[in-house]
Amino acid sequence: MPSPIGFNLLAWSAPISEKMVPIAERLKTIGYDGIECFIDDQSVAAYTRFGAELQQLNLRSTCVTVVGPDANPASESAAVRAAAVDFLKGTIDRAHAMGATVICGPTHSAFATFSKREPQPDEYAHSAEVLHAVGDYAKQAGIVLAVEALNRFECYLCNTMDQLAGLVQKADHPNIRAMFDTHHANIEEKRFPDAIRTIAPVLAHVHISENDRGTPGDGNVRWDDTFRTLAELNYSGWMTIEAFTRNDVDFANSINVWREYDDPWAIAEKGFAFIKAMQEKYAG
Questions:
Q1: Which residues are in the Xylose isomerase-like TIM barrel domain (predicted)?
Q2: From CA 14, how far away is CA 37, in angstroms rounded?
């Protein structure tokens, strides 16, 4: 069976709302198996309601989140690390209420927060300790945390699959796994096949994301390497398009998206066709 295909609603909005329901419905019509949404500080009840709408549409869901400096898992402060555990448990509560099975994102450290030095062994140890502590909570909710490596301009702790694999190994919990994002890998990895094989033993989620964050297949990401290697490894997890626009201005500003790459529906339609074609190309 080919991997299920998802689309991240961040192309329209960071917060979930009733306005996202018609968008999810149209994504279902295109052929998507599920949607991915950002987890913020809305109530658990809001995610329960949204999850019920998705269930009516027969759409599955995954989630993405980030942590801030006040809840940094890699912090030297025990109080900040405790806040990280509480924050991630709250994220799990919201994802579980929605019916999601995966929370992806750079939950190893605070987003766009830099120490002005290379990663330190104690930072990896602190991060792994927090992730392990959250793992049991994720397990009882039936959720996997798929931890993400980011490019050097957004993160310093985990830029590569080699670093990420080491961190997940230190976390040592079956519900703490990893994801591969083609946008970040396009910046940081030497060879996609080697990177994917490095993370394969703990790989739980894949973001299909073009080098410019626009329509997958329109840029210079090593797509044949990506789909060929995933097929060779019999990867069966999500392939979720993560593309950005300036529809949600506050979110776009927070991640330095300063121009439009494509209309979100063009991205969704062309991106779905591209993934299906690549899956068929490397099937069997």
A1: 25-260
A2: 7
Q: Which residues contact 21 (CB under 8 A, 6 or more apart)?
A: 50, 53, 57
Q: Which two tokens stand for residue 172?
A: 């040592």
Report whether 268 contacts 7 (CB < 8 A).
yes
Nearest to 87 by CA among 41, 143, 35: 41
Say how far residue 264 (Cα) sits from the centre of its chain. Answer: 18
Query: Are the beta carbons of 36 and 61 closer than 8 angstroms?
Result: yes
Which residues face 177 on adjacent strands? 146
Write the pLDDT tens digit of every residue in 1-21: 789 999 999 999 989 999 999
Positions of E strands within 113-272: 144-147, 176-181, 203-208, 238-241
Q: Beta partners for 207?
A: 181, 240
Among 267, 278, 277, residue whose Cα is nearest residue 243: 267
| Digit-coded pLDDT (tens) for 202-251 | 999 999 999 999 899 999 999 999 999 999 999 999 999 998 878 778 87
200's enclosing H/E stretch is none
Q: What is the pLDDT of residues 121-161, one digit of tens each?
A: 999 999 999 999 999 999 999 999 999 999 999 999 999 99
Domains, in order of start, for the chain = 5-281 (3.20.20.150)
CB 83 within 8 A of CB 71: yes
Residue 65 structure tokens: 């989140």
CA dihedral sign of residues 90, 95, 97, 98: positive
| Per-residue confidence (pLDDT) for residue 28, from 0 to 100 | 98
